[in-house]
Design goal:
Length: 167
């Protein structure tokens, strides 16, 4: 959890605008998926990378810092397409809008604070996909299992013990 914050902070300080270290890699991945490398796609990837677990609306706001004229619809379309080709993964916390992240393919799960909505990554519980072994697979070849850990984050726990009014 803390580790993740450190990485994000590090990236922000080393970001020099146009030359994001991952952009070349992303361009390559886009081509491998038969997509053209456009500044819209790169800007959306950049935004999602900078703000893991952001909503589509948060992503629009972030992308507009680079491409002020991009429409909400365009960002949604790009996000959906990047999700389809697996460069972005989508996570839907209970009762809250979908979140997006560039951490894909590692079958990780999420811990969700029921009080403030904070989301943290949790490594795959068993160590490989589909992670859980259900008693019945109904003849399906199971690819993945998504676990949502619902809880109360440390900050909210502290607020509750201190009697502060929870948000
Ligand atoms: Zn919380
Ligand atoms: Zn995540």
């Amino acid at each position: 959890m803390t580790q993740n914050n450190v990485i994000v902070g590090f990236m922000e300080t080393t970001q020099t605008g146009a030359s994001h270290p991952s952009q070349q890699e992303w361009a390559q991945q886009l081509r491998l998926n038969g997509r053209r490398v456009t500044k819209q796609r790169l800007a959306v990837l950049d935004a999602v990378e900078a703000m893991p677990h952001a909503t589509a609306d948060d992503t629009v706001r972030q992308v507009r810092q680079v491409l002020p004229k991009i429409s909400v619809q365009s960002v949604y379309v790009v996000l959906a397409d990047l999700t389809t080709i697996g460069m972005v993964s989508k996570f839907e916390p209970p009762g809250s809008p979908a979140r997006y992240e560039t951490r894909t393919g590692d079958n990780h799960h999420h811990a969700y604070c029921i009080n403030c909505g904070m989301i943290e990554d949790v490594a795959c519980a068993v160590g490989d996909t589909p992670c859980l072994t259900p008693s019945e697979d109904h003849g399906m070849k199971l690819l993945s299992a998504e676990v949502v850990y619902r809880g109360i984050c440390p900050q909210c726990q502290e607020d509750m013990t201190n009697g502060t009014t929870a948000k």
